[in-house]
Amino acid sequence: MTSPAAAPRPYRRIATEEAWAPPEMFDLFRRILGEHPEDDPGFMSLMGYYALGDGERPRFIRERMVDTEGVRLQEMDAAGVDHQILALTAPGTNPLAAAQATDLARVANDHLGDIVRKRPDRFSGLAAVPFTAADAGAAELERAVTQLGLKGAILNSHVRDRYTDSPEFLPFYEAAASLGVPVYLHPNAPSAGLFKPLHDRGLDGSMYGFGVETGLHLMRLVVSGVFERFPALKLVVGHLGEAVPFWLNRIDYMYGKQVATGRYAHVKPLPLKPSEYIRRNVWITTSGMPWEDEIMFVRKMMGADRVMYAMDYPYQYEPSEVELQDKLPLTDEERFEFFEGIATRVFDLEL
């Protein structure tokens, strides 16, 4: 069997949701966990495992997360991945107060800017943003894009249990829309109201809780009117849309009934259906979801021009999954778009 790396192909594989972190982030999180382990159970569940854990998996993840010159490149080559779009791993800056969040964002973005300048053939980057800053990180996003050459922003879901449809986050979305760069909505440990019933059964992580958390965040952005306010805003969502594409018809139907009956006086009706905003403003990646039936279904629901490749390295490094997606029932032109073309346009890549 020909390996993904060896197989000749007329397209580059651009992996669009690939996690990275500077060593300073793990140092900071270890210190926070040591001083206040009880303050945030979701943060403790996520980073208590990945930052403090001494088992094989957390060590595997940590070693690869901070590396862009050794094993990461070797494993990209082994899997036949030509280019990664790197972003600060969850929870990123989100659990931090303004000063710490701003410091971490600047350190991470400066590091990432250096990485992409050294290897523009292999890496692009998304900016970390201090969402707890007074301007919701708009100034740091502008600096990272205009001065460091980063290609968008990473949003690791809720910010200290607040979702970013709240008014204080609008300066961030205004900046992203004005700059013309995408925002990647990425999972985080569930917010406080969701955490306990999921954690009780070990469901708060990527098996289920991440999808619940991030799908909720996406739907809040839609029905709150963020995309109505910023019609040019580009949002990217991984894991085949966190199950939202499966629900689109029911979401539209029930939204229409709620609006017609005035069930929620505090929810203002929008001029478009929820699915119309999602199909207009949202792109989907296959991170961690390499299976044909699911991918082809989401392409049908969202449109073929809305679904692009991702691996979810290093959390789900499985070279065999590249081959599964190479074998999708696509035309040569569709396969080029899936692996390269869509990502190049959405993230404005110059490769």
Automatic annotation (TrEMBL):
Keyword Translocase in record: no
Protein keywords = Lyase
- Is Lyase tagged as a keyword? yes
Q: Hey, what's the signal peptide range on this chain?
A: none
Q: Which InterPro entries match?
A: ACMSD, Amidohydro-rel, Metal_Hydrolase
Positions of the Amidohydrolase-related domain: 76-349
Q: What is this protein called?
A: Amidohydrolase
Species lineage, top-down? Bacteria, Bacillati, Actinomycetota, Actinomycetes, Micrococcales
